[in-house]
Amino acid sequence: MKILLVIPSLPLGGAERVMSVLANKFVALNHDVHLVLLAKDEIFYSLDKRIVVHQLGFENKGKLSKIISEVKTYFRLRKLIKNENPDVVLSFMVKYNIFTIMASAFLKTKVFVSDRCNPNKKIPFLRNFLRDRLYKRATGVIAQTQLAKSVLSKSTKHQNIKVIHNPLKQMEIKPYLNREKIILNVGRLAPEKGQLKLIEEFCKIEQTGWKLMILGDGPLYADLQARIKELNAQSKVILEGAVSDVESYLQRASLFVFSSFSEGFPNALAEAMCSGLPCISFDCEAGPNEIITNGENGILVPVGDFETLRKELEGLINSSEDRERLAVAALKTNEDLAIDKITQEYLSFFKS
Question: Residue 169: what pLDDT?
């Protein structure tokens, strides 16, 4: 198949990682893959050289300039779809899904779209209005979770919605007994990720030698640094910033804590489980409860209940037996989210 993938850009991010993984796997299976980046920006993820990358040059340099650039980008995308005549177009993220559906109107191209955020997250009125009406024109809709499918079915009335979880690459599993006393958190440093309160609660725990290591960057970086200094916790709370090799940190850590309030599908949590880490997570509306069975392969805590989160952390810090039991059970996530399995689900949906 000729597959044309549409996304605004490829910086560090969950949707971007999934798009890059799918692009690489599709081309590895000998499909003709074209990756369309609406904006000209740096590409964070490694791409197979056989992937044809199109950068359409959208720029936001002021209100009027943005509108003009959006119109130009719209016609460039439409022309590209018309000229390449792909068998399938796959677009990520609500705004760009709407854009892609409009750009492909009357071209008789199969268009599949996928939202990548919490399905109950409020979006601007016009975007919500257009999504509910234009998604009907898509050949199919891909939801990350059962909740997302339920919400989209109700709002768009689309009859062809399929739940496909995010793919995860197979990781080298380091024996659990050889790991360090590191509690890992991965995510954008933003209010909805809960890292500020997580740091404060971690500092209340009486423990010897354990460190909280946070991977990611974002608008709260300076605030988190300042709070760590106020708590005199520089030796036990470490902000690593954005890193390209998350896997090496997952292999070192002994615990993973996910303090996010809102998710579409928690890639970071899933990767931690696949690497054999015992995980504690807030039970967000979408995602965690579809990969964690509380008490069996991880621990779920009511969203925002940091006191319980701290107590669960303390319990696992003090019990190597519980940590190892959860770690072994978490590894089974590898089977459910394996790249080969998820890629075939996409391809089967495209062909159905």
Answer: 72
Tens-place pLDDT, residues 257-280: 999 998 878 888 999 998 889 999
Residue 15: Cβ-neighbour burial (10 angstroms; 0-12, 13-18, 19+): buried
Does residue 259 contact residue 235 with C-beta atoms inside 8 Å? no
pLDDT (0 to 100) of residue 174: 64
In angstroms, rounded to a whole number, what is the distance separating the alpha carbons of residues 199 and 104?
47
Gap between the Cα atoms of 216 and 316, Å rounded = 24
Helices (H), the chain: 14-28, 63-84, 94-103, 125-134, 146-156, 195-202, 221-230, 246-252, 267-274, 288-291, 306-317, 320-330, 333-336, 339-351
Instruction: List the one residue out of 198, 185, 196 whose CA is nearest residue 243.
Output: 185
pTM equals 0.79
Q: In the structure encoding, which two tokens stand for residue 19, read together?
A: 């798009």
* Residue 168 per-residue DSSP state: B
Nearest to 261 by CA among 301, 226, 227: 301
**pLDDT at residue 177, rounded to an integer:** 65
Give pLDDT < 50 ranges for the chain.
Answer: none
- State the first-to-last Cα distance of the chain, in angstroms, to the nearest integer: 13
Output the six-digit token pair for 39: 């904006």
Give residue 175's pLDDT.
64
Query: How far apart are alpha carbons 310 and 314 in whole angstroms?
Result: 6
| Burial class for 250, CB neighbours closer than 10 Å (0-12, 13-18, 19+) | buried
> What pLDDT score does 191 carry?
94
